[in-house]
Structure formats: C-alpha cells, structure tokens
Amino acid sequence: MKIDIYTSTKDGEKYLSVKAGVKLETLELNDTMDSDMMSLSPFRTRLEIDPSKPHKALQAKAILKQIETYGFALHGAKTRIKLSTKKKRKAPSKAATKKVPIKKVGAKTSKK
Fold it and tell me: Domain 2-76: which topology?
C-alpha cells in the first residue's frame, strides 16, 4: 500500500498517515484527538510500505491496520543516531621519534 505521511508542526515526533491521495479534510477525527495533530505538514508522499519488510522508524503492520480500521494512523517515529569521538592516540615514544638520517637516492654530486 502507498501512504502519505504528515508530521505535526507542534511535535516533530508525531505523525499521521493515510492512504496515498486521501484529502485530510475528509477525515472524521474525534474531539479527543491529540491537539498536536491538528496542525500538520507533509512529510512523505506515496511511500510504498510492505508489512512483510522492515521499514526504518515505521511499524508497517500497525500503521496499515489503523488505516484500514479508522482511515488514518497516528504514530510516532524517532530515529536516534549515536556519535562518538575518536580515542586520542598515545604520543609516540622517544624510540619511535629517534632521528634517522635521510639518504638522497639518485642524487648526483658534482666533482670539481
């Protein structure tokens, strides 16, 4: 099934999904619905979701079941990315920094 996903403009971790092409104005929403979901912005359109395949940040089976039952699905999505810093390298030991003479290879010397 192809779906359109809208995100709340008040809370970017809340989403409303409908079958692709459904006009939001035609949805019958009850007055107990989360007020954050009353102001939406398009997030993704015509996304093909297959309940037999994994989707990042989406529970496809649950979303499709809600759409079939209510005409829309309310869901959250949060993707966390963990960053880390590189470990500092140990300073080289004195033995590793010992001066070694550099030989010039192929250098010509002029004889007078």
Answer: NE1680-like fold (3.10.510)
